[in-house]
Write a structure and sequence with these properties.
single chain, 272 residues, alpha/beta, eight-stranded parallel beta sheet, two-stranded antiparallel sheet, 12 helices, 10 strands
Length: 272
């Protein structure tokens, strides 16, 4: 997002075929249902100031609530910070009181949208079919979906975590063309580690991210899979970010609580 075109990308050289991959490092902050408009603007402008004239090795994205989007876009340098919605409707427009369409999100100047967050799946019963529609509408309106996948504790303990994640990807994303899939960002969030203080170990995160890349390779080929950014979301913070991000298949984080304060968010950005 500005500066050297390769500064925020992971350079991976595969010696066996002399293949160079450019994969973006990304740190995205999901504010969830926090901050009034005034508080949100203050946080966004403070982060904007903190990043000014700083060399950072990742793209930075923030996801404020819907009602903040247009104001935040206008208050910051969007070449430094990308702006994302936290959700969008699965319908293009019409009599859906309280819903916000992908087209409306795009009209605010936001460039990204989080789709399939575990809280949306759990509390609002979003099905794979609903998420499939949301992804298609987001792409049709020029938005980059940050698509979330991940297992709950019972599924992890039953040894079903790979099966669950594979199914989530297949059911909502494998209808996409190669070109469409190449526009996505994925975020693996072990649901048992969100807001619980528990974190997947760096090894667990790498194991799942490598598995995700493998099933995408099988469906869309190595180029698409290797250029796809896969973020880790699940109690990622200043103390564990560096270890998580050092993994070859972990390309950044989808950060919750720690993104609500510049003091806590900046060290995660600087972990790259």
């Amino acid at each position: 997002m500005g500066g050297c075109p390769y500064a925020n990308e992971k350079l991976i050289i595969y010696s066996y075929k002399n293949h160079i991959v450019m994969r973006k490092n990304i740190v995205a902050g999901n504010w969830k249902m926090n901050k009034t408009l005034q508080e949100g603007l203050a946080l966004a402008t403070e982060l904007n100031e903190a990043l000014k004239n700083k060399t950072i090795n990742c793209d930075v994205i923030i996801a404020p609530p819907f009602i903040h989007l247009a104001s935040v876009v206008n208050a910051i340098d969007t070449t430094t910070i990308g702006v994302s919605a936290q959700n969008c409707a699965d319908k293009p427009e019409g009599a859906y009181t309280g819903e916000v369409s992908a087209k409306m999100v795009a009209s605010t100047g936001a460039k990204y949208v989080i789709i399939g967050h575990s809280e949306r799946r759990t509390y609002y019963h979003e099905t794979p079919e609903i998420l499939k529609e949301k992804v298609l509408l987001a792409l049709a309106n020029g938005l980059t979906p940050i698509f979330c996948i991940g297992e709950v504790l019972a599924e992890r303990e039953a040894g079903r975590h790979f099966e669950v994640v594979k199914s989530q990807i297949e059911q909502s994303l494998f209808n996409l063309s190669k070109e469409e899939f190449g526009k996505l960002i994925l975020a693996y969030e072990p649901v048992w580690a969100i807001g619980t203080g528990k974190t997947a170990t760096a090894e667990q995160a790498q194991e799942m991210h490598a598995f995700i890349r493998k099933i995408i390779t099988e469906k869309y080929g190595k180029d698409i899979a290797e250029n796809l950014s896969i973020l880790y979301g699940g109690s990622c913070n200043a103390s564990n970010a560096k270890e998580l991000f050092a993994n070859p298949d972990v390309d950044g984080g989808l950060i919750g609580g720690a993104s609500l304060s510049v003091d806590k968010f900046m060290p995660i950005i600087e972990a790259f």
